[in-house]
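Escalation from tier 1.

The customer reports that the assembly of three entities below gives different structure tokens on two consecutive runs. Tier 1 could not reproduce it. I'm attaching the input and our single run for tier 2 to review.
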Amino acid sequence: MIDFKALEAEIKATAKKWLESGEVKFVIGYEKSPESPIARPFFAHTPEDTEKLYWGPDCINNLTLYLVEEMKKKPKKGQPPFTHAVGIVVKPCDSRTIVELMKEHMVPRERVKIIGVISEESINPDKLYLALKNVPASQRRNIRFHDAGENFRITYQGGELSVPKKELEADKCKVCVVHKAVIADVFVGTGEIEFKPDDFSDIKELEEMSEEERWKYWEQQMSRCVRCYACRDACPLCYCEECVFDREKPYRWVEKSVQVRENSFYHLVRAMHLAGRCIDCGECQRVCPMEIPIRQLNRFLIKKAKDRFKVFSGMNAEEKPMFGTYDLDDPGEEIK
Amino acid sequence: MAKMIKKDKVRELLDKLANEKFDIFAPIGEDGITLYRKLGAETPLLNFQNSSKPPKEIFFPQTEKMFDITVENHRLVGATEPPMASNPILLFGARPCDMRAMKVLDALFTWDYTDPYYVNKRERSTVISFACTLPDMPRESCFCTSVGGATDSREGADMLWTDIGSEFVVESLTDKGGKILELGGNLFTEATPDMQAKAKQVSQEATEAISRKLDTEGVKEALEATFDNAYWDEFSARCLGCGICTLLCPTCHCFDINDLVVEGKASRERTWDSCQFTYYTIHASNHNPRPVKKHRQRNRIYHKFLYSEKNLGLLGCVGCGRCIYGCPVNIDIIEVVEGAKEVLK
Amino acid sequence: MTQENEAKDEWEPKIIGFLCNWCSYTGADLAGTSRLQYPPNIRIIKVMCSGRVNPQFILKAFQEGADGILVSGCHPGDCHYIEGNYHARRKLTLLMDLLDYMGVDSKRFQMSWVSASEGQKFAEVVTTFTNQIKEMGPQTKLRGVK
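Tier 1 run:
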């Protein structure tokens, strides 16, 4: 059983120590919002700020997004380059993003101090809303989670309820293969969790459909896209200075009109840009206001990268990016 | 006189209206979310959480062709506007907050220039609002009562239907609503005083269930005084810069106009735009007056609570809560506005 | 003859060929100078290397009305830039998988290795591919045509 309060205290203590010693400029973590049932990103700039840091299974956001943002900042002309380090709280899956960013030379190792939390699965906010359905809206405040074996004991203003963990588990956590941060300066929490191999059974149904059925399925999904680009903006690996979909000069790749023709182009290109890089943190699908199953595209490419090129992203910062290298024996039977 | 209709007669009514050439738009469940779609033979949702995308898209589509461009020998020779349709539109099952939002769009699109595309669709439309009733509504992010709305607001609607269990209490508010009563004929029957009392009661219960409150007093003064305050840096630090809050907002109305050539056929179309996008304000010189996300977030809040009232005389927020519900990083408009007031203190 | 058949007979596929400057384009040239016959449906775009072909090019071409796309470069090991075609192989075979997964038949997108001396092979590749696309009919999905 995990004591979230104890983990939170350890995170606070570490962050405080780092901020007091000046090792880091600020610490990126989570805080609990008074109104929302799920935690939100928080930046602790002073040792006092660390009191607000929070930990629980509702810490869903992949915070490495803000790490890249900070690393991309450039000093004014003539000034020396930035060297300050940033502290960050990561879940095991998010730590793979940092590895991937290091692989791509976006984050130098010495500029990041990582608190790797060993914890169980995160929750799916949609499922949480569903579980809270019978709680009056006015009471859905100060929601806290407590580990009770198979269940989460969820306390809220003026009551509590018990929900099986399996009912709240986020989909991405069901297929997770890392349960301990791949890279960290400090580990918070203990425990060994069994490594379950990923069999990609969640996309099997789609793969087995006929071609026409698959297109019908995707056409329907693509028709819903409103092109808010939240899937891109929430992705820590989409860090280009100028996104190809925003570009107007010299050529506009994608028209602003929202229709299957443009939307599917956007989603296909986005998926290709993440091929061999995506670590399946699931943020794209979580943020989508139209509930488009974006992860199914990413998951397929993760599977194919594994099958074709034996590439599995985010495990080893010494490796080269998948499209930055090649193997003489790469399969290519399709090529005539 | 209040009328009532049984829930199992709703489909029959819609069939009758479809026969009268009405284009019916109604809430449909799709992969776990609610959307307003053109209705075919399916039964629309009668109990639903508010739609992900507001029904403004029926009158102001996200992508709308303005005209076709005729090109001969690489020269522009003319433009043909698509013929304006004349069949009536029925928006069935809109939420009261979204219909209050239409007043902002109405004011905007007839402000200094009458927008033919929007006004044409608006004039042809009849709106049946559904009062919010428990348990689906209100959502935890709803705060319409704080910004002048109500769970049974009649503004902008032609009819108000209140769900009292197995039937709706129907109230006709305009001549267009009366026309629907007429076309429905014997599907509508007299509502008993008990039913009317029940309708009042369920609306009251829904109103009481709204937990979020925003005190709009002093907001304008606070915003006017804090424009350059560091406060705006603080809360926008976690903003992703996606356009969810604006694209899902029922009163947001920014659009972009583009010419495009698809397989040799040129046309001009307008699409929704969002002030949250970096490229929204970029000038031809490449200068961007709102270079960072703080400016863009601030603009959204100012537009809703300050500029809109100055320009159109209407508050730009109807309290539907979509921006709170949809935000991936929990930027909460109530918290932000209350925070600005705190700063001023 | 029915009207439908007439329409089908009139339709000629549009095929885009991205050919590498050093091998396949010269191979196509050789096919021409050797007066070999191949269908005229292919519109050739010369690229410096098959590794230059960005997956976006393929998707955009499909979107803009291509019925079939051929990418052709030097045989593995023969790349003028030593490794460009290996990179192309990685990127583009993955794109084929993705197209299939979206429900767009990846047979519309073909890759081949044609060297500068293989004029005959180029003509054969283009002929088979064009016939295959003719069989498959127009590409409508990514064009957004109903």
